[in-house]
Amino acid sequence: MTQYTIDSVQSTEISIDNGKVQMKIGFSKKEFLEKDVRFVYTNFLSSSNMSEVIVHTSDSAGKTKNYKFYASPDDPKVDEFLGDLVSRLGKSIDLRGKDSKEALAQMKAMNTNAVAMIAVPAFVILVLIGFFSPLILHGFDGGNAEVTAEELKEGNKTGTSNLTISGHALSEAMEYSTRRKGTTTVRIYFPLVSENWESGQPVHILVETGKLSDEEFNEVISRTRFTGVLRDKLWEGPHSDVTKFFTENYGATFSEPVLLLDLDASAGEDRNIALFAIAFSILLFVGIGAYIKFKS
């Protein structure tokens, strides 16, 4: 029995015994007959700086299959294993000196480099679109409406998230800080209720704004009209920590769903943020792809 252990990228154990080749790649086990091997090849993946090792087989019934594992381009065990197969079966199976396009076509193998260059950026862009989908939906909302806090409480539909809400702001507020990569972001929250609201009644609307000085805060809550974007798309709304804070510290109760108005926000800003992030990612992947193609 001849054994090879190749673990420069993924744990791969290979044995050749009594005409059978067994591969254990991670938790996966594969087996084929030595005599069924038709071609061997290593495909350098420039996008990940590793080699894709391919053993192409064709059995007596004509069924073909490619067995693949991944290793470092300079792993000597790969050359030992493939060299062993070549010495047993003849030089005609060795495609390592051929152009990758020609070799992959001969083995009917997928070009992993080409697929990765398309699939990875496409997947990331789809994830970004999903992540920014609330902003995208807001960004293409061209409407505007004026409504009272009482009308929103009663469930009146406005047809748009760009609202000017007439109501009464409560002075009870929360300062919510988040820290990420050394940067602290502060948001202020306060309830917005109807003019006939009485203490002890449920709150239906929270207003969110940036950090304010005491003077700025007093000016904001003295308003009777509040313009901004209602954060009501998909998973948007106030964080549970915010409503919990008002419940525990002010004894507030809330009626569901709790609406969140992003004060002084605009649909255009939402659209620009989302499109910039997506466009930047596309340009980044185009640049990386061009660099990899140039280097290869």
Summarize the structure.
The protein is α+β, with helices and mostly antiparallel strands and 296 residues long.
Point out poorly predicted stretches.
none
Q: Tally of extended strands?
A: 15
In DSSP terms, counting alpha (H) and pi (I) runs of 4 or more, how many helices? 8
Main sheet makeup: 8 strands, mixed
What is the terminal separation in angstroms? 38 Å
Briefly note the structural class of the backbone: alpha+beta
Mean pLDDT: 88
> Roughly how many Å is the radius of gyration?
31 Å
> SSE order in H/E notation?
EEEEEEEHHHHEHEEEEEHEHEH
Shape: elongated
Helix content: 25-40%
Percent of sequence in beta strands: 25-35%
Q: Helices and strands in order, then pairings?
A:
Elements lengths: L1 E5 L5 E6 L2 E6 L2 E6 L3 E9 L4 E9 L5 E8 L4 H14 L10 H8 L4 H20 L1 H7 L5 E4 H5 L8 E5 L1 E2 L4 E7 L2 E11 L9 E8 L3 H8 L3 E6 L9 H11 L3 E10 L3 H29 L1
Parallel strand pairs: 8-9, 13-15
Antiparallel strand pairs: 1-2, 2-3, 3-4, 5-6, 6-7, 9-14, 10-12, 11-12, 12-13, 14-15
Keywords:
four-stranded antiparallel β-sheet, 15 strands, eight-stranded mixed β-sheet, elongated, alpha+beta
